[in-house]
Specification:
Mean pLDDT: 88
Helix content: over 70%
Strand content: under 5%
Distance between the termini: 48 Å
Low-confidence stretches: none
Structural class: mainly alpha
Number of strands: 0
Largest sheet: none
Radius of gyration: 27 Å
Order of helices and strands: HHHHH
Length: 154
């Protein structure tokens, strides 16, 4: 059975973006507070956690929006030279590309899994309602047969 609205497993409101913004600022301030210890290492770690959590709970698009916001912020604040968009080392570019690809793939996989989960839930509900209708119809049919038998016996 084809279920067309399995794409709508998450609510289409502003709540995911509000929670994503809170997570984004929390990730930024956490990374910024640990900047003295981490220096230039793991510039996107906390942003990746935020994007992954958004993908799991709210879907692909909120995660994608904050992924696109995370890349320039991590380059500007946490990669040398700090406070500029100049990336000096090729490994920094590679790290950003890896962050982009892994977070995108994670978001896509979570989206597909959530759609299938929602589709299975919808199919279960349809199946249960059809079974209930079948039971009710069977009870009515048995009553009609019983009533017809009792009329012919009289």
């Amino acid at each position: 059975m084809k279920i067309k609205n399995s794409k709508r497993w998450s609510s289409p409101d502003w709540k995911p973006y509000l929670i994503g913004a809170i997570g984004f600022f929390l990730a930024f301030f956490l990374r910024f507070s640990l900047h003295d210890r981490l220096d230039e290492h793991f510039p996107t770690l906390f942003f990746a956690i935020n994007c992954t959590m958004l993908a799991y709970f709210y879907g692909f698009w909120p995660s994608f929006v904050f992924l696109l916001m995370s890349i320039p912020v991590s380059i500007y604040f946490f990669i040398e030279p700090y406070g500029a968009f100049d990336i000096g080392i090729d490994t920094d570019v590679t790290d950003q590309i890896v962050f982009l690809i892994i977070t995108l793939l994670t978001a896509v996989f979570f989206e597909k899994l959530r759609r299938e989960q929602y589709r299975a839930t919808l199919l279960q509900r349809v199946s249960e309602s059809r079974f209930q209708l079948l039971v009710e119809n069977d009870a009515e049919l048995r009553q009609a047969i019983f009533a017809a038998k009792s009329q012919t016996d009289n």
